[in-house]
């Protein structure tokens, strides 16, 4: 008997797969197609455990689909633009391109080392001009179709990194990387008109039945569709202000009107009233996200203006308020303190009337003495012609009346904003527009694409290297030939990841993709990745796909029909007495090696550099082999849950691989078994069917558990032809999970070609039927015991078995039963 030499087997079979292009997808294949994709990695330098788990899952599905007769597209590439490369350039004085390419090479070797069934012939890196040049052409298609525009807008400006930050990059008012206090600045920015598709993107969620509900809900909330009424209040200075409300029913409860700090009315007032200007400045200091506005203290500035109630219910004071967002609705609201919590807090602070207009039954007087707003259902009170109506009914009536009388109209607003794609960075896709003082914005002519990044840039001072490059931005206007300037913004890297899955399907040199080819492969049937991308990446990719359809480049609505979001890989944390995080290699025997002080074991948390609880997969793969690592990634936890990395776990996986090898090796060397083992045959076929169903459902841990059971059963079984057949079939069953040992065994046992190309074993349906059943034993209708009996046993025999049961006999106390009811294969009820 020999031991399984993982290192040797890994290297050998990886080379065989590579050389024979085993996993190259054939575009012209007549087989049914299956597109399996994991979110492509950012080339940060090393593969981490989260990648290993993610890619192992996708790999098992891809390999399994091949075995079930599909032509599988399972590609890999690099989301290669982004800030870390520039940070490395600043810190380590290495060019972002070089840093990125080195990381890609290292990580590619690591992925190969894990034996993933990837079609490397389709590899792409988004930082390659052969990729981003096509992205520029798509940007221009969108531009011509009116899906791209430029406007002045307030941005989060990081004064240290000298860049615009996305809202998510602002944490507690500070830049996520620099920690500097973020400022608001006005800049001319490029936007993609995602709001044009807001309704479609929302409706489309309904068709995504193979997406997790929570992700669909997160997208729905992000799009945030609200229906209500939009109308104008006439102001005391002769002007007017338009408001948006989702609660037109509460109109008689209005006690003030409030506008955002950057609303034109507020701006106009600020120009002549220094106190108003000071108040507006103060508002800008606070955060601007919806969540921050919710929790901040509500502040207002009385403009001295009044607004006439549209239904004649008096004059309302007009405030500038810090909880009103300029970017939502119309940037102005009417406040109903009794029925909106923000308004309630505001009215309490500024002693404004709080009038009840919705009653939940108990109290209906106008005086509201609650401690918080009432936002529940009920009927209208103190509201003239609305009195007695239910909320929904009242909303409808007010909208109808506003439209009839011409002072307002029903309207729908979305929380979704257009996608600001301008970044003042070097390492991204240059925006292919030229600014000419005579012609304005001029698209770069198609034949001049790609607009390539200049290589000779410096990072010794902060700011945008494209902006300060001596020559790059100076060009001739393509239209008039005069001196003009390139746009020096680059695209948000989310643009790069919004269509890479289409480029994988088809990679012509002269176009972003071939339409027919792309339509043959897409949509991606199974997409797998982290839940951190549940909103932005997935929404942007859905938008981009719709935009492509809009400009006539592809006939596809949804890019990913199946989505799976996997859990994280976690690990114990360790802390020194003074609270410093310690890495596992800094401790030994319960003490910190450097100081000898005792170590505290902290919580199990997501692996992260900051907590020093990461485990580098590379040395583990070298030590235990790729198969053991893959097996561990699949076992223990359901894939959507967190998986705790442990030494024991990987060792257990390694032992299992060795157990497999003992079975394979013994069959290779031993004598052929004789005779049938019906129980083992049944177990085998149940496992074939069960593992297939589990893998299709991505319940990898269940598949693993079934394979453990089968291996246990085989080990216990006496020699037989059935046992030999079970071991032979086991090779195919484990092949998607532990492909190296499977190839080795396949070759050893005389299999044809590669097991990677072998079919999934056939299930004999007859063997799936259980031959034993569990029968409930009742006495007077009460469950007393259960019996395991042969399936289809005759009534008399079932009755006899029940009466012979100890518990039944005891309850009968020697008397004969009055009646015995038998439901075959299910239940016996003994009536005493
Ligand atoms: C009067 C009212 C009475 C409101 C009431 C609510 C409850 P959603 O559902 O999130 O769309 N609002 C409108 N525009 C706003 C803005 N730019 N900044 C801050 N708040 C704004 O919320 C819509 C409601 O949020 C609107 O309905 C408006 O307040 C407020 F008992 O109008 B409501
Ligand atoms: Zn010009």
UniProtKB/TrEMBL annotation:
HAMAP family: Leu_tRNA_synth_B (MF_00049_B). The keyword Cytoplasm applies. Residues 412-572, 605-646 form the Aminoacyl-tRNA synthetase class Ia domain. Belongs to the class-I aminoacyl-tRNA synthetase family. Residues 39-170 form the Methionyl/Leucyl tRNA synthetase domain. ATP binds at residue 609. A motif ('HIGH' region) lies at residues 41-51. Residues 679-794 form the Methionyl/Valyl/Leucyl/Isoleucyl-tRNA synthetase anticodon-binding domain. PANTHER family: LEUCINE--TRNA LIGASE, MITOCHONDRIAL (PTHR43740:SF2), LEUCYL-TRNA SYNTHETASE (PTHR43740). GO terms for molecular function: leucine-tRNA ligase activity. Its EC number is 6.1.1.4. A motif ('KMSKS' region) lies at residues 606-610. The keyword Cell cycle does not apply. It catalyses: tRNA(Leu) + L-leucine + ATP = L-leucyl-tRNA(Leu) + AMP + diphosphate. Keywords: Aminoacyl-tRNA synthetase, ATP-binding, Cytoplasm, Ligase, Nucleotide-binding, Protein biosynthesis. Residues 220-402 form the Leucyl-tRNA synthetase editing domain. InterPro entries: aa-tRNA-synth_I_CS, aa-tRNA-synth_Ia, Leu-tRNA-ligase, Leu_tRNA-synth_edit, M/V/L/I-tRNA-synth_anticd-bd, Methionyl/Leucyl_tRNA_Synth, Rossmann-like_a/b/a_fold, tRNAsynth_Ia_anticodon-bd. The lineage of its organism: Bacteria, Pseudomonadati, Pseudomonadota, Alphaproteobacteria, Sphingomonadales. This is Leucine--tRNA ligase. It is found in: Cytoplasm.
């Amino acid at each position: 008997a020999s031991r399984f030499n993982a290192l040797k087997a890994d290297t050998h079979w990886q080379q065989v797969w590579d050389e024979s292009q085993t996993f190259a997808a054939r575009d012209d294949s007549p087989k049914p197609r299956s597109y399996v994709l994991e979110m492509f990695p950012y080339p940060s330098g090393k593969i981490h455990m989260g990648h290993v788990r993610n890619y192992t899952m996708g790999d098992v599905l891809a390999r399994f689909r091949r075995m079930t007769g599909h032509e599988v597209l399972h590609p890999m590439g690099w989301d290669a633009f982004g800030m870390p490369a520039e940070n490395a350039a600043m810190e380590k004085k290495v060019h972002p391109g070089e840093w990125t390419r080195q990381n890609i090479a290292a990580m590619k070797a690591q992925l190969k080392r894990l034996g993933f069934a990837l079609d490397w012939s389709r590899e792409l890196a988004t930082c390659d001009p052969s990729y981003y040049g096509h992205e520029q052409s798509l940007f221009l298609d969108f531009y011509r179709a009116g899906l791209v525009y430029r406007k002045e807008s307030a941005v989060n400006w990081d004064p240290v990194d000298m860049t615009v930050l996305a809202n998510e990059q602002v944490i507690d008012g500070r830049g996520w990387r620099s920690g500097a206090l973020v400022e608001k600045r006005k800049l001319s920015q490029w936007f993609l008109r995602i709001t044009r598709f807001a309704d479609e993107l929302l409706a489309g969620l309904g068709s995504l039945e193979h997406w997790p509900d929570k992700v669909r809900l997160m997208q729905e909330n992000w799009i945030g569709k609200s229906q209500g009424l939009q109308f104008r209040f006439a102001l005391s200075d002769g002007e007017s202000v338009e408001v948006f409300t989702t609660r037109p029913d509460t109109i008689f409860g209005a006690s003030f009107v409030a506008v955002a700090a950057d609303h034109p009315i507020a701006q106009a007032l600020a120009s002549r009233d220094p106190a108003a200007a000071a108040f507006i400045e103060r508002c800008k200091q606070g955060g601007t996200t919806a969540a921050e506005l919710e929790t901040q203290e509500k502040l207002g500035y009385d403009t001295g203006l009044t607004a006439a109630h549209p239904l004649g219910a008096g004059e309302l004071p007009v405030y500038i308020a810090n909880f009103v967002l300029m970017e939502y609705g119309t940037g102005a609201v009417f406040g109903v303190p009794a029925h909106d919590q923000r308004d309630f807090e505001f009215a309490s602070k500024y002693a404004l009337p709080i009038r009840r207009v919705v009653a939940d039954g108990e109290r209906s007087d106008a005086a509201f003495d609650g401690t918080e707003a009432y936002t529940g259902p009920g009927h209208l009170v103190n509201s003239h012609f609305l009195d007695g109506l239910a909320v929904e009914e009242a909303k409808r009536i007010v909208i109808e009346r506003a439209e009839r009388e011409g002072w307002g109209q029903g309207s729908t607003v979305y929380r979704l904003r257009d996608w600001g794609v301008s970044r003042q960075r070097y390492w991204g896709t240059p925006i292919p527009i030229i600014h000419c003082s005579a012609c304005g914005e001029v698209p770069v002519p198609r034949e001049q694409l790609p607009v390539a990044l200049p290589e000779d840039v410096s990072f010794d001072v902060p700011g945008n290297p494209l902006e300060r490059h001596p020559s790059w931005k100076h060009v001739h206007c393509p239209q008039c030939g005069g001196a003009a300037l390139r746009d020096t913004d680059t695209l948000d890297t989310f643009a790069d990841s919004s269509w890479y899955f289409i480029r994988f399907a088809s990679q012509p040199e002269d176009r972003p993709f071939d339409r027919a080819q792309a339509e043959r492969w897409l949509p991606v049937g199974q997409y797998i990745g982290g839940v951190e991308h549940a909103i932005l990446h997935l929404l942007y990719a859905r938008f981009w796909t719709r935009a492509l359809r809009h400009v006539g480049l592809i006939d596809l609505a949804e890019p990913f029909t199946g989505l799976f979001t996997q859990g994280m890989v976690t690990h114990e944390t360790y802390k020194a007495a003074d609270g410093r995080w310690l890495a596992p290699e800094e401790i030994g025997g319960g003490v910190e090696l450097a100081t000898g002080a005792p170590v505290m074991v902290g919580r199990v948390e997501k692996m992260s550099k900051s907590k020093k609880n990461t485990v580098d997969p590379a040395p583990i793969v070298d030590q235990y082999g790729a198969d053991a690592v893959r097996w561990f990634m699949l076992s223990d936890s359901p894939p959507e849950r967190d998986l705790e990395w442990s030494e024991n776990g990987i060792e257990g996986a390694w032992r299992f691989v060795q157990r497999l090898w003992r079975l394979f090796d013994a069959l290779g060397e031993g004598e052929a078994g004789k005779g049938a083992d019906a129980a083992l045959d049944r177990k085998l076929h149940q496992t074939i069917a069960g593992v297939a169903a589990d893998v299709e459902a991505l319940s990898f841990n269940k598949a693993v558990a079934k394979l453990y059971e089968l291996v246990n059963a085989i080990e216990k079984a006496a020699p037989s032809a059935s046992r030999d057949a079970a071991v032979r079939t086991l090779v195919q069953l484990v092949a998607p999970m532990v492909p190296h040992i499977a190839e080795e065994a396949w070759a050893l046992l005389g299999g044809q070609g590669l097991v990677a190309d072998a079919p999934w074993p056939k299930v004999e349906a007859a063997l799936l039927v259980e031959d034993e059943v569990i029968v409930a034993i009742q006495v007077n209708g009460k469950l007393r015991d259960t019996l395991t009996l042969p399936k289809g046993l005759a009534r008399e025999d079932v009755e006899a078995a029940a009466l012979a049961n100890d518990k039944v006999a005891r309850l009968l106390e020697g008397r004969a039963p009055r009646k015995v009811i038998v439901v075959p294969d299910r239940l016996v009820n003994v009536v005493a």
